[in-house]
Design brief:
It is a single chain. This protein is 44% helix and 14% strand. The protein has twelve helices and eight strands. An eight-stranded mixed sheet has the order 1-2-4-3-5-6-7-8, with helices on both faces. The radius of gyration is 21 Å and the shape is globular.
Length: 316
């Protein structure tokens, strides 16, 4: 027992020394890397309730389509798909509150994001647009349809089921100063950003150029972004309950569609079919060999699916 107590004491001392050294490094690193970068010039904004919402528009004619990104994404994520859709539609992509270059205004809840989306539709005077939600954005477009079905033309769940994370309602959070250190280390590493992108997007996605790396990095370095991260994480991934999602099936005037990458590692096999059944959509479209970023990896397939949904919406 005496030997065990000595070992335990030595391990405790070593752990305390390591923790002190890590804390010291973290504090010094954070002080040395303070500072923000400005948003790019020439961005477009519109006032949506209490938020200055950044958005991008493609196309000048045709029926409206509004694209809603997922967690840690931005309106720029949609560019490959939006350019194709713009041939026949007026296409809009917004930066949800807490992401991209939209003004950060708490709370970052599903309800707040839903209000932002509906306020955007009203501010631009869009008549029953098709709403496409990628990943966690699926919950936001679903909530908008439930809140204002007469203002929504159709809803697509793209690589998203609208449900909370399977392990709980909130992604894991790391306390400061370590959270700030980890975030800055990742953001300052082109290699780390390219690795995360590759794992999420798969082999079908184009390799990230320097400009592509900056597209993913810069929104998390603008003023207010770092400070908002704990609140964004605390609000959790946008989601709805199974009961709430089931109410979509009763909205007969709002056509629904579900489109997933066939090799999306974020979901179990059968998740797309289950999602379609839950919300009253036809059998899902599965994009062969695609992973979780289908707007980037498979713009032609996503465009075809959105146009099919938009055609169904015209008949309603």
């Amino acid at each position: 027992m005496g030997r065990l107590r000595r070992w335990a004491r030595q391990w405790a001392i070593a752990l305390a020394i390591d923790l002190a050294a890590l804390s010291a490094f973290s504090l010094v690193y954070n002080l040395a890397t303070q500072g923000t970068v400005p948003p790019p010039p020439g961005l477009t904004y519109v006032r949506t309730g209490d938020i200055n919402t950044r958005y991008i528009q493609w196309g000048t004619h045709g029926s409206p389509i509004v694209l809603v990104h997922g967690f840690i994404e931005s309106a720029d994520t949609w560019a490959p798909t939006a350019r194709l859709l713009a041939a026949d539609h007026r296409v809009y992509a917004i930066d949800l509150d807490g992401f991209g270059y939209t003004e950060r205004v708490a709370p970052y809840t599903t309800a707040h994001l839903t209000t932002q989306l509906l306020d955007f539709v009203a501010a631009l005077h869009l008549t029953r647009p098709v709403l496409v939600g990628h990943s966690s954005g699926a919950a936001v477009v679903a909530a908008a349809a439930l809140a204002a079905p007469d203002r929504v033309g159709a809803v697509m769940f793209l690589d998203g089921d609208g449900l909370p994370l399977s392990g709980g309602g909130h992604p894991p959070s790391i306390v400061n100063p370590y959270r700030t250190t980890l975030l800055r280390l990742v953001l300052r590493s082109d290699t780390a950003i390219r690795l995360i992108y590759s794992l999420t997007c798969g082999n079908q996605c184009p390799a990230l150029t320097s400009a592509g790396v900056e597209q993913w990095r810069r929104p998390l370095q603008v003023p207010g972004a770092e400070r908002a991260i704990p609140q964004v994480l605390g609000a959790g991934i946008p989601s709805l309950s199974t009961t709430q999602l089931g109410r979509l099936a009763a909205l007969s005037r709002v056509p629904k569609a579900v489109v997933f990458g066939a090799d999306d590692p974020e979901y179990d096999p059968g998740a797309a079919a289950g999602t379609a059944a839950r919300i009253g959509a036809p059998a899902p479209t599965l994009i062969p060999s695609a992973r979780h970023l289908t707007p980037v990896s498979s713009p032609a397939a996503v465009t075809a699916a959105v146009e099919e949904l938009a055609a169904r919406a015209v008949g309603q």
